[in-house]
Specification:
Oligomer: heterodimer
Shape of chain B: globular
Helix content of chain A: 40-55%
Shape of chain A: elongated
Helix content of chain B: under 10%
Largest interface: A-B, 44 and 34 residues
Strand content of chain B: over 45%
Order of helices and strands of chain B: HEEEEEEEEEEEEEEEE
Radius of gyration of chain B: 21 Å
Number of strands of chain A: 13
Structural class of chain A: alpha/beta
Chain lengths: 349, 286
Amino acid sequence: MLLPATLGAQAAVAVPTAATARDLERLARGEQLAGLPPADSVTAGPRLVAAGTTVRGSIVARGPVDIYGTVEGNAVSLAGDVTVHRGGVVGGDALSVGGRVVADSGRVDGELRTMSSLPALLPPATVAAPPTAAQSTIGAVRLVAGSFGMLLLVAIGVLLFAARNLDEVVGTLERSFGRAFWVGLGGQLLLLPVLVLLVVALALTVIGVLLIPFAIVAYAIAVAGLLTLGFLAVARLVGGAFWQAEGASPRARSLGALAVGVGGFFVLWLVAAAFGWAPLAASVLRAAALAATWAAMTLGLGAAIVSRAGTHRRVASGKRPVELASWQTPTPITGVIAARRPVAAGEGR
Amino acid sequence: MSGRVALAVALAALAMPAPAGAQGDASWRSVSFARQLRDTLPQRIRVQYGAGRVDVRASGEPLLYALQLRYDQTRAAPLHRYDAEQRSALLGLESRGAGLRDSRSGGESGELRLGLPRTVPIDLDLELGGAAATLELGGLMLQSLRLDCGATEATLGFATPNRSRLRDMEINVGVAGLTALHLANANADVIRVRGGAGSVDLDFGGSWTRDLSVSTRLAVGTLTLHVPDEVGVRLELQRVAASFEHAGMIKRDDAWYSANWETAPRKLRIRAETFFGKVEIQRGVR
């Protein structure tokens, strides 16, 4: 005997309620179950498919479902077990919400599914669609702007707490531009070998092995510090060429030059980001920005190394102009005026 | 470069997922999916799971797979695709976009349990992100096994022998700890283990039916090999700053040999590369 799914449902009390329709929608969308019957075809209580009968399409019941015959589609119970008895066949999935699917003797061509509750109506879990060109551009611009803001904060921190070191690195750049570049290049090439050497050296000692993780972290921090200090020094040097606020205090001049310099570099990145909608142009611009940033980093790293992170004052190497009369012992010692000691301006105060 | 660092930090900040648990416990759901066995032809089963507890083992049921999941439906959706023509199943969870790095929310944590049949030859591919995994694969008919662990504490075991010849076994470990037990029961020809950082503990206990070749590459961490006394061991070791505890093995030419290498009925050939850490061989099984 061949029965359409809706006809089979007529044997039980149909419940064409809004709740049932909603449940069916949740099943259809959440479980990707196709071919579910309309809400008015859902059986209110138990559902039995007798042996020798075939139901075309899917069946859904609010009570237990027992299948002795054939269901060509899915067999679903919204509140009970689905049992596929000996000789019973389900062509699709057998699904139970809050119950079990028992199919030890029968055949289910699809999946046997059970679930504690109906799925929520959520957007399907798919791999996120690739962003549009506009979204990519906006995202890239946001990223660059955020990075610029962060670096500016770091720059202010350096100005507040390590202004003299920054001055010294800038001075080193002004005096030894070429040397700074080559030292920076060598420094980059040696970063990893030096780390490996450090780790190996520590590993050779018994106690040193324990220090390896700390040494790696300390090394990374030191390198990051040198790179940051160096880059900011280059930025200030470049910015100083464009920002010459006559009459402003040295700190204000320094801050302005830094902001202009850092901004200059980030403008390159910003332009590259703004061309995110044009991949080829963006790639070229990004390469240009990368080259400029790399050059600045290399110069800065070299200057930071040469000046030992700005702690190597020029007076130590005898290259800083000495203000000879900047210090003098005010009191004669044993009747003779003390010898003048050459001291750099600003020191000994 | 500080610019790059800043870019990376900014990117990380922008990409930060929304706080978990905002939807409460009602978003958690338990589901199970199973498929009846139609025949015993080979199948390929691939499992993808981001974070949570994982348990995979043999099942006595006449099912191709029996998958049970506990998951937060606001963050993920079940994966249960089967291609009858290709005879391959893709199982697990897929992200809804918020990321599966932390499967805990509202005091609950995600879980995947998978039962596999003993009677079907299987090519098994497990991709586990941040998970605590118990993989008891003894008694299956594995033909190949690939295990990718991200930040996973995984225990892989073969309590009973694999019922098929395991042509290839590859384990890739990110930053994690891996313990593999009774590897001789895997019935494998070749085992390859690659590790980033962490500890890898390989126990070669079990029933030895053939010689075994193992290659390991571990960047940073400890590699411990437990080998039964009656098995002959040959170890080629390449290390940079790693110590080696050889358990009485003797170095000849470019390799280390156990004293019973020539006379042992079964032989284990190991090629190990490690950079920082320790390589240790222990005779006897765990």
